[in-house]
Design a protein that fits this description.
By secondary structure, the chain is an alpha+beta fold. It has a four-stranded antiparallel β-sheet. It starts with 17 loop residues before the first helix and ends with a strand. Helix 1 runs antiparallel to helix 2. The chain is built from three helices and four strands.
Length: 198
């Protein structure tokens, strides 16, 4: 709907007065600018929202990976200082400070804030072999690690803990052709190696 503004009587020069035409033209171009601004906002706004979500998701992924790496490093450090000689005892007294897989798994779980223990796979690697379990199942495993078999708990023996956990990202929802509410899943691995210190 176009509103016409009438010119003052001293400006009017008949039906085609220049003042009347100019004001009506100005009103029409104002409405066209409003539509143009909306289109420009859509062209700029949608990519900006995508960039902001991408920055958030990348930061969340980096935080999760760093947390996972820190947790596995804490777990292997805890295990490395609980070998056969972790407490000085006389020769005839047994050393009973060895730790179980459950205790090491609790250290990893406590350090890995935000990591889903049911979805996280853990591998304990020593000279005696490999023990694999999810972090939840490891929390109930009372096996001593590193084990005394094959002298895996002796001073200087290498031990390694490997962890893998899934990372679900919301970025995939914004790619063309993706299904509604589908999340991309990437697996983050982390590992740490040390030698038995005591």
């Amino acid at each position: 709907m176009t509103t016409t503004i009438h010119a003052r009587p001293d400006e009017a020069q008949g039906a085609g007065a220049p003042g009347r035409q100019t004001r009506t033209a100005c009103r029409r171009t104002g409405k066209t600018h409003l539509g143009q601004t909306l289109v420009e906002f859509i062209f700029v706004g949608i990519p900006m929202v995508f960039i902001l979500i991408s920055i958030f998701e990348i930061a969340r992924g980096m935080w999760m990976y760093n947390t996972l790496a820190y947790a596995v490093r804490e777990g292997v450090r805890f295990a490395s200082v609980h070998g056969i000689n972790c407490v000085y005892n006389p020769p005839s007294v047994n050393n009973n400070c060895s730790k179980s897989i459950a205790q090491i798994a609790r250290v990893i779980q406590d350090a890995g804030v935000g990591i889903d223990p049911a979805q996280t796979d853990v591998r304990f690697v020593s000279q005696a072999g490999v023990v694999s379990c999810t972090l939840t199942a490891c929390a109930a495993n009372s096996t001593i690690w590193p084990p005394a078999t094959s002298n895996a708990n002796q001073l200087g023996q290498p031990i390694r803990i490997e962890v893998q956990t899934p990372f679900r990202s919301a970025i995939a929802m914004f790619w063309p052709g993706s299904r509604a509410q589908s999340f991309a899943v990437a697996t983050f691995p982390a590992s740490s190696t040390d030698i038995v210190q005591y």
